[in-house]
Specification:
Layout (H helix, E strand, L loop, with lengths): L10 E4 L9 E7 L13 H9 L3 E5 L12 H27 L6 E11 L1 H11 L8 H9 L19 E5 L2 E2 L12 E4 L11 E4 L7 E5 H11 L3
Parallel strand pairs: 2-3, 2-4, 4-5, 5-7
Antiparallel strand pairs: 1-3, 6-9, 8-9
Helix pairs in contact: 2-3, 2-4
């Protein structure tokens, strides 16, 4: 739900055709669009490619900000936190399916979070942000107001939202310091000349949206090396 207006969230799931594997790795993917635009069908081609390689691939809905300007920085932080909660709920759903109906035949030890641009920002925080991190007070308050670290998008908290790795296409973290030695490995692709999501560290703006500070794939990579994360 968002401000008492319930919103149903869906996912499209792609599976390898005709494989006999009882247990397949899975990639849970989120689309891009600056948290104001985009739809899960945007990742159709990528998910089909992953399924052909033997993965179960899911492309998910997440809550977007109603495009009302001007957009304050805390509103942007809030909508990102909501998206993180939505992705965590989708991961818990995949584990719930594996423990019950087992429609997707997923190896729950090999669920990866991924995305493009805004979706990769979401996935990066799913993979790397945890309660043990040094979270700035304003961000901690927003997380608390959205149900805590697991979010409030579903109530199946008996299932874990942990992931085996991050698949990051042009994403970023609020702070690369969120990456610590206990975090999963990361795979990143990012154009050093990216004019929207910063490649290293700096202010990010998508059109008329307010500037927010992010640390992109290079900063994440360097911090991962420091922390001993693959």
């Amino acid at each position: 739900t968002s401000d008492s207006n319930p919103q149903a969230l869906f996912m499209d799931v792609y599976e390898p055709a005709g494989d006999g594997a009882e247990s397949r790795p899975a990639v849970d993917m989120a689309f891009g669009g600056a948290f104001v635009a985009g739809e899960r069908q945007d990742l159709d081609v990528l998910c089909r490619s992953l399924a052909r390689k033997g993965y179960v691939a899911a492309t998910i809905d997440y809550r977007l900000f109603d495009f009302l300007l001007p957009l304050a920085s805390n509103q942007m932080h809030d909508v990102v936190v909501k998206a993180i909660g939505d992705m965590k709920a989708s991961i818990r759903y995949l584990r719930q399916d594996a423990a019950t109906d087992n429609l997707f035949r997923i190896d729950t030890s090999l669920i990866f979070a991924g995305g493009i641009s805004a979706g990769a920002i979401t996935a990066a925080h799913v993979a790397h942000l945890d309660a043990e991190d040094d979270i700035p007070g304003y961000l901690a308050n927003i997380i608390e107001n959205n149900g805590g670290m697991e979010g409030n998008s579903s109530d199946n908290y008996q299932y874990s939202s942990a992931v085996a790795g991050l698949v990051n296409y042009s994403g970023a973290l609020k702070l690369s310091a969120f990456i610590d030695e206990n975090d999963p490995p990361q795979f990143s692709v990012h154009d050093e000349g990216d004019g929207i999501v910063v490649y290293n560290k700096g202010l990010v703006s998508a059109g008329p949206i307010v500037f927010v500070y992010l640390e992109g794939s290079l900063a994440m990579h360097n911090r991962a090396l420091e922390a001993g994360v693959s």
